[in-house]
Design brief:
260 residues; alpha+beta; Bactericidal permeability-increasing protein, domain 1; 2 domains; six-stranded antiparallel beta sheet; 3 helices; 6 strands; 36% helix; Circadian clock-controlled protein; signal; biological rhythms; To_sf; Haemolymph_juvenile_hormone-bd
Length: 260
Amino acid sequence: MSQQWLSNCARLLVFLAGIVLFATHLANASSQIDVDADLKHLLGRCHWADEDFNECMRQVFNDLRAYFTTGVPDYNIKPFDPHHCSYVELRRGESQGLGSFRLILRNVSEYGWARSEVTKFHADPEDQRIVYTQYFPEKSLEGEYEFAAKMLGTEMNRKGHWNLTLYDYSQTTSVRRIGGPGSLIKVHVEVDRIGGMELHIENLLQGQPLNQLADGVINSMWQLGLPFIKPMINELVSTAFTDIFNESFRHFPLEKFLAT
Protein backbone atom coordinates (compact mmCIF):
# COMPACT_ATOMS: atom_id res chain seq x y z
CA MET A 1 0.00 0.00 0.00
CA SER A 2 1.67 3.20 -1.20
CA GLN A 3 2.34 6.24 0.93
CA GLN A 4 0.70 8.39 -1.74
CA TRP A 5 -2.52 6.36 -1.48
CA LEU A 6 -2.58 6.75 2.31
CA SER A 7 -2.00 10.48 1.94
CA ASN A 8 -4.89 10.80 -0.51
CA CYS A 9 -7.19 8.83 1.83
CA ALA A 10 -6.26 11.09 4.71
CA ARG A 11 -7.04 14.18 2.66
CA LEU A 12 -10.38 12.69 1.62
CA LEU A 13 -11.32 11.93 5.23
CA VAL A 14 -10.41 15.47 6.30
CA PHE A 15 -12.46 16.85 3.41
CA LEU A 16 -15.49 14.69 4.33
CA ALA A 17 -15.17 15.65 7.99
CA GLY A 18 -15.14 19.30 6.95
CA ILE A 19 -18.31 18.81 4.91
CA VAL A 20 -20.05 17.11 7.86
CA LEU A 21 -19.03 19.88 10.28
CA PHE A 22 -20.11 22.56 7.82
CA ALA A 23 -23.46 20.81 7.21
CA THR A 24 -24.03 20.46 10.96
CA HIS A 25 -23.25 24.13 11.52
CA LEU A 26 -25.53 25.09 8.63
CA ALA A 27 -28.37 22.93 9.99
CA ASN A 28 -28.00 24.46 13.45
CA ALA A 29 -27.93 27.96 12.00
CA SER A 30 -31.01 27.18 9.89
CA SER A 31 -32.81 25.81 12.95
CA GLN A 32 -31.92 28.95 14.90
CA ILE A 33 -33.23 31.14 12.07
CA ASP A 34 -36.45 29.13 11.82
CA VAL A 35 -37.09 29.32 15.57
CA ASP A 36 -36.29 33.04 15.71
CA ALA A 37 -38.52 33.74 12.70
CA ASP A 38 -41.40 31.73 14.18
CA LEU A 39 -41.15 33.40 17.59
CA LYS A 40 -40.84 36.81 15.94
CA HIS A 41 -43.93 36.07 13.85
CA LEU A 42 -45.95 34.91 16.87
CA LEU A 43 -44.85 37.46 19.47
CA GLY A 44 -44.22 40.31 17.05
CA ARG A 45 -47.87 40.63 16.09
CA CYS A 46 -48.71 41.90 19.60
CA HIS A 47 -48.06 45.59 20.35
CA TRP A 48 -47.85 46.90 23.91
CA ALA A 49 -49.84 50.04 23.10
CA ASP A 50 -52.75 48.26 21.39
CA GLU A 51 -56.04 47.86 23.24
CA ASP A 52 -56.20 44.21 22.25
CA PHE A 53 -52.67 43.38 23.50
CA ASN A 54 -53.94 41.02 26.22
CA GLU A 55 -56.19 39.15 23.79
CA CYS A 56 -53.37 38.99 21.26
CA MET A 57 -51.02 37.48 23.84
CA ARG A 58 -53.68 34.98 24.90
CA GLN A 59 -53.81 33.75 21.31
CA VAL A 60 -50.00 33.69 21.12
CA PHE A 61 -49.79 31.53 24.26
CA ASN A 62 -52.11 29.02 22.61
CA ASP A 63 -50.18 29.12 19.33
CA LEU A 64 -46.98 28.35 21.27
CA ARG A 65 -48.38 24.95 22.26
CA ALA A 66 -46.45 23.51 19.31
CA TYR A 67 -43.30 24.04 21.39
CA PHE A 68 -44.67 22.46 24.59
CA THR A 69 -43.49 18.97 23.64
CA THR A 70 -40.12 20.05 22.25
CA GLY A 71 -39.09 23.13 24.19
CA VAL A 72 -36.80 25.67 22.53
CA PRO A 73 -33.26 24.32 22.99
CA ASP A 74 -31.70 27.38 21.32
CA TYR A 75 -32.90 29.44 24.30
CA ASN A 76 -32.54 26.71 26.97
CA ILE A 77 -36.32 26.36 27.31
CA LYS A 78 -37.13 22.80 28.31
CA PRO A 79 -40.26 20.89 27.18
CA PHE A 80 -43.44 21.52 29.14
CA ASP A 81 -45.24 18.33 28.13
CA PRO A 82 -44.05 16.51 30.00
CA HIS A 83 -42.08 18.78 32.26
CA HIS A 84 -40.18 17.63 35.31
CA CYS A 85 -39.45 18.81 38.82
CA SER A 86 -36.75 16.98 40.74
CA TYR A 87 -37.66 18.18 44.25
CA VAL A 88 -40.33 20.15 46.08
CA GLU A 89 -40.98 20.24 49.82
CA LEU A 90 -43.86 21.27 52.07
CA ARG A 91 -43.68 21.66 55.85
CA ARG A 92 -46.30 22.41 58.46
CA GLY A 93 -46.08 22.73 62.26
CA GLU A 94 -43.10 22.64 64.61
CA SER A 95 -41.16 19.47 65.33
CA GLN A 96 -41.38 20.20 69.07
CA GLY A 97 -45.07 21.08 68.99
CA LEU A 98 -48.24 18.97 69.19
CA GLY A 99 -48.16 18.07 65.52
CA SER A 100 -46.11 18.58 62.39
CA PHE A 101 -45.46 17.02 59.00
CA ARG A 102 -43.05 17.17 56.10
CA LEU A 103 -43.93 16.15 52.56
CA ILE A 104 -41.24 15.77 49.89
CA LEU A 105 -42.06 15.09 46.25
CA ARG A 106 -39.25 13.84 44.00
CA ASN A 107 -38.88 13.28 40.27
CA VAL A 108 -42.33 14.66 39.46
CA SER A 109 -43.50 14.56 35.84
CA GLU A 110 -46.54 16.48 34.61
CA TYR A 111 -48.49 15.80 31.40
CA GLY A 112 -51.32 17.59 29.58
CA TRP A 113 -49.92 20.99 28.61
CA ALA A 114 -50.14 20.36 24.87
CA ARG A 115 -53.93 20.02 25.20
CA SER A 116 -54.37 22.99 27.53
CA GLU A 117 -55.82 26.36 26.57
CA VAL A 118 -55.14 29.83 27.94
CA THR A 119 -58.56 31.39 28.47
CA LYS A 120 -57.52 34.73 30.02
CA PHE A 121 -54.37 36.84 29.88
CA HIS A 122 -53.48 40.15 31.53
CA ALA A 123 -50.14 41.98 31.46
CA ASP A 124 -49.06 44.63 33.96
CA PRO A 125 -45.84 46.10 32.48
CA GLU A 126 -45.26 48.54 35.35
CA ASP A 127 -45.24 45.69 37.88
CA GLN A 128 -43.44 43.33 35.44
CA ARG A 129 -46.23 40.82 35.96
CA ILE A 130 -48.43 38.67 33.76
CA VAL A 131 -51.48 36.75 34.97
CA TYR A 132 -53.11 34.04 32.89
CA THR A 133 -55.79 31.41 33.39
CA GLN A 134 -55.29 28.00 31.83
CA TYR A 135 -57.78 25.18 31.24
CA PHE A 136 -56.80 21.50 31.07
CA PRO A 137 -59.34 18.88 29.95
CA GLU A 138 -57.00 16.37 31.58
CA LYS A 139 -53.78 16.84 33.50
CA SER A 140 -51.73 14.08 35.12
CA LEU A 141 -48.77 13.98 37.47
CA GLU A 142 -46.63 11.21 38.91
CA GLY A 143 -43.54 10.83 41.04
CA GLU A 144 -42.14 9.63 44.35
CA TYR A 145 -43.12 10.91 47.79
CA GLU A 146 -41.71 10.91 51.31
CA PHE A 147 -44.05 11.76 54.18
CA ALA A 148 -43.08 12.18 57.83
CA ALA A 149 -45.58 13.27 60.48
CA LYS A 150 -45.67 13.57 64.24
CA MET A 151 -48.90 13.87 66.21
CA LEU A 152 -49.02 13.89 70.02
CA GLY A 153 -45.77 11.94 70.20
CA THR A 154 -46.72 9.37 67.59
CA GLU A 155 -44.58 9.30 64.46
CA MET A 156 -45.58 8.21 60.96
CA ASN A 157 -43.21 7.70 58.03
CA ARG A 158 -44.28 6.68 54.53
CA LYS A 159 -42.73 6.73 51.07
CA GLY A 160 -43.52 5.34 47.65
CA HIS A 161 -44.91 6.12 44.22
CA TRP A 162 -47.96 8.32 43.58
CA ASN A 163 -49.96 9.44 40.57
CA LEU A 164 -52.70 12.01 40.16
CA THR A 165 -55.08 12.74 37.28
CA LEU A 166 -57.20 15.90 37.20
CA TYR A 167 -60.17 16.37 34.88
CA ASP A 168 -61.89 19.57 33.77
CA TYR A 169 -59.18 21.47 35.61
CA SER A 170 -58.22 25.16 35.55
CA GLN A 171 -55.60 27.27 37.30
CA THR A 172 -54.52 30.91 37.36
CA THR A 173 -50.81 31.65 37.24
CA SER A 174 -49.13 34.92 38.19
CA VAL A 175 -45.58 35.41 36.90
CA ARG A 176 -43.56 38.40 38.13
CA ARG A 177 -39.97 39.40 37.44
CA ILE A 178 -38.23 40.84 40.50
CA GLY A 179 -35.87 43.39 38.97
CA GLY A 180 -34.46 43.92 35.49
CA PRO A 181 -33.65 41.44 32.69
CA GLY A 182 -32.06 38.27 34.04
CA SER A 183 -33.42 38.80 37.55
CA LEU A 184 -35.37 36.16 39.45
CA ILE A 185 -38.92 35.19 38.48
CA LYS A 186 -41.60 34.59 41.12
CA VAL A 187 -44.54 32.35 40.25
CA HIS A 188 -47.79 31.89 42.14
CA VAL A 189 -50.39 29.33 41.06
CA GLU A 190 -53.99 29.19 42.28
CA VAL A 191 -56.26 26.21 41.63
CA ASP A 192 -59.55 27.54 40.23
CA ARG A 193 -61.52 24.39 39.51
CA ILE A 194 -61.21 20.60 39.68
CA GLY A 195 -64.05 18.79 37.93
CA GLY A 196 -62.78 15.30 38.73
CA MET A 197 -59.79 13.65 40.35
CA GLU A 198 -58.13 10.25 40.68
CA LEU A 199 -55.29 9.88 43.19
CA HIS A 200 -53.30 6.76 44.03
CA ILE A 201 -50.68 6.76 46.80
CA GLU A 202 -48.48 3.73 47.32
CA ASN A 203 -47.81 2.56 50.89
CA LEU A 204 -50.07 5.16 52.47
CA LEU A 205 -51.46 2.45 54.78
CA GLN A 206 -49.92 -0.89 55.66
CA GLY A 207 -51.04 -3.67 53.31
CA GLN A 208 -52.53 -3.70 49.82
CA PRO A 209 -56.20 -4.07 50.92
CA LEU A 210 -55.90 -1.02 53.18
CA ASN A 211 -54.19 0.93 50.41
CA GLN A 212 -57.06 0.15 48.05
CA LEU A 213 -59.50 1.24 50.75
CA ALA A 214 -57.58 4.52 51.21
CA ASP A 215 -57.65 5.15 47.45
CA GLY A 216 -61.40 4.57 47.41
CA VAL A 217 -62.03 6.93 50.32
CA ILE A 218 -59.78 9.68 48.88
CA ASN A 219 -61.25 9.49 45.38
CA SER A 220 -64.86 9.48 46.60
CA MET A 221 -64.56 12.23 49.24
CA TRP A 222 -61.83 14.57 47.96
CA GLN A 223 -64.34 17.40 47.41
CA LEU A 224 -64.93 17.63 51.16
CA GLY A 225 -61.24 18.05 51.94
CA LEU A 226 -60.39 20.33 49.03
CA PRO A 227 -60.93 23.63 50.92
CA PHE A 228 -58.38 22.50 53.51
CA ILE A 229 -55.71 21.07 51.20
CA LYS A 230 -56.09 23.63 48.39
CA PRO A 231 -53.67 26.16 50.00
CA MET A 232 -51.05 23.39 50.30
CA ILE A 233 -51.56 22.40 46.65
CA ASN A 234 -51.13 26.05 45.63
CA GLU A 235 -47.90 26.29 47.64
CA LEU A 236 -46.42 23.07 46.24
CA VAL A 237 -47.25 23.97 42.63
CA SER A 238 -46.06 27.58 43.04
CA THR A 239 -42.72 26.45 44.49
CA ALA A 240 -42.20 23.93 41.69
CA PHE A 241 -43.11 26.39 38.94
CA THR A 242 -40.92 29.14 40.36
CA ASP A 243 -37.96 26.79 39.89
CA ILE A 244 -39.14 25.67 36.42
CA PHE A 245 -39.78 29.19 35.12
CA ASN A 246 -36.45 30.50 36.41
CA GLU A 247 -34.61 27.63 34.76
CA SER A 248 -36.30 28.11 31.38
CA PHE A 249 -37.30 31.80 31.13
CA ARG A 250 -35.06 33.84 33.42
CA HIS A 251 -32.71 34.80 30.58
CA PHE A 252 -35.15 34.58 27.67
CA PRO A 253 -34.84 37.79 25.55
CA LEU A 254 -38.56 38.57 25.30
CA GLU A 255 -37.90 42.14 24.17
CA LYS A 256 -36.15 40.74 21.08
CA PHE A 257 -39.44 39.37 19.77
CA LEU A 258 -42.16 41.69 21.09
CA ALA A 259 -43.24 44.60 18.93
CA THR A 260 -43.08 48.04 20.51
